[in-house]
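User: Sequence recovery, please. Input:
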């Protein structure tokens, strides 16, 4: 029986100006695990969009700090991005859902869901967890995602022209 080594890493991002740390973090992980460039792009775009969503709702109390955790497990790669220091009940659980309903975040959530294999938004709205099945990534799934994004952008462009 082959046992998989546990790979867990975590970083902290202080404000949107430090998004480069997230990009470097994702790149180092993908390089280490020999993830192909197409799937690297999916992981990078989805994680960046998730960080932007959380920065947009982060409270002043958290100082605009996000914690990004990576864990490789049997399913694949898990990236959990959460607002730091947001452990108390402060009404944030409704803020993300309310914004999604108002369609302010619909585009970003759609992009994340199209690029990741599983997406979980915490009930309180302080974290987004994305799972990528890197071990089973195949050509058909990649094409399907590309086509979904093309359809979305074509609909968006058509709506803007009207």
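Assistant: Recovered sequence (162 residues):
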């Amino acid at each position: 029986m082959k046992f998989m080594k546990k790979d867990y890493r975590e970083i902290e991002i202080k404000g949107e100006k430090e998004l480069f740390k997230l990009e470097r973090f994702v790149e180092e992980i993908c390089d280490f695990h020999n993830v192909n460039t197409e799937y690297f792009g999916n992981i990078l775009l989805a994680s960046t969009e998730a960080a932007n969503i959380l920065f947009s709702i982060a409270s002043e109390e958290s100082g605009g700090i996000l914690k990004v955790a990576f864990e490789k497990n049997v399913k694949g790669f898990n990236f959990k991005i959460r607002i730091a220091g947001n452990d108390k009940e402060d009404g944030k659980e409704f803020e993300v859902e309310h914004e999604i309903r108002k369609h302010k975040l619909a585009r970003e959530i759609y992009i994340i869901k199209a690029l990741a294999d599983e997406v979980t938004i915490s009930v309180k709205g302080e974290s987004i967890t994305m799972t990528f099945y890197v071990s089973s990534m195949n050509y058909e799934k990649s094409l399907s995602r590309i086509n979904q994004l093309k359809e979305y952008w074509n609909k968006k462009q058509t709506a803007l022209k009207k």
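The chain has five helices and five strands.
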